[in-house]
Prior knowledge:
Largest sheet: 7 strands, parallel
Strand order of the largest sheet: 3-2-1-4-5-6-17
CATH superfamily of the largest domain: Dihydrodipicolinate Reductase, domain 2
Order of helices and strands: EHEHEHEHEHEHEEEEEEHEEHEEHEHHE
CATH class of the largest domain: Alpha Beta
Number of helices: 11
CATH architecture of the largest domain: 2-Layer Sandwich
Number of strands: 18
Structural class: alpha/beta
Shape: globular
Number of domains: 2
Distance between the termini: 49 Å
Helix content: 25-40%
Amino acid sequence: MKILILGSGLMGPAAAFNAMADRAVTQVILADLSQPQLEAGVKQLAGKPGSHKLGVVRLDLSNQETATQLMANFDAIIAALPREASVLAVQAALEAGKPLVDLTIPAEASLPELRRLAETSAALVILGCGLEPGLTELLARHLAEKLDRVDELHIKCGGIPVEPAPPLGYKIVFGGTQLPLREADAWVVENGMLTKTARYSGVETVTFPGVGACEAFTESFMPWLLDLPVLHHLRAGTQKTVRWPGYAAKATLLKELGLLSDTPIAVDGVQVRPKRLVDTLLYPHVKMNEGDQDLTVFRVEAIGELDGKPCRLQADMVDRYDTSQNFTSMARTTAFTGSIVARMITRGELTGRGLHHPERIITGPHFEQLLSELAILGINFEMTSHWL
């Protein structure tokens, strides 16, 4: 089994680590445009189980012919890339007819063209197959299917530093050098209707065992979840990001000041994108430094009716930085998930073609297998039920 991993940033090396440890895997290649990032990935993986299987290659995904030729030599591809590069990875995989697991989701504007390309490709491409999106939606479907009727679905998830520090109390653990801040409104389900609301609104206190009090604020409910038959009668749905208290107010201020806009403005004759400026100014304060550790918190709640009685089903997970292997919790929960799923495809356990979200493909025994493999890695979900 040969695995190609695109991207040697925050996620790629963790995906490689997980794949290398599989005895059925004979080769793992890290590909990236940046030679320094490739060297950093090799250094991070040196001496780890299966490191003799590791190789690297410089790859410019904008050269689609070269990318397609490279992908043709592998059994599965994992994309651990920024969204703008993810589009190119999916295009090349569709052309090569090779399965690809994307840890993120390409920009919405690119999806119609990708779906058109997928119509004539034999490739199975799973989009958004990490932590969030990914495990959040998988657990949402799992809980929903245990109820006789689902009225509400609430998802809360986030990666936070163990030790919050000014100015945001946050460290970047996913997405390269750009802060996960957006000015666009967010989707929620209210009174059975999908509607928009202000991002960073709906702030509530949420507590996790061993972590303490955090805040959760509105990001965006994944609209395609409503296509699942089990959620056709959903009355309320939210998807919230978890941070240390105070983050949402600061993000709201940046938004209200126009500093999250990607629209260029003229400053002394120079065109400047406010969001890019904010990313550049804040990056030194929010990058993970030597000694920094993170943790991931996760909660999915499905509320409805079971056996004629109101019931709430809940899935919780708290994961922490791996001090023995030096992987962030975000990399463990995101990249390990994608890596496991890629190998499930290669083994023929997950089949199909075209573009899919994971909750459409990874169901039943395959879902249980994924959770079992994550549990072996120390990533555990606690399932509870409560009569209301």
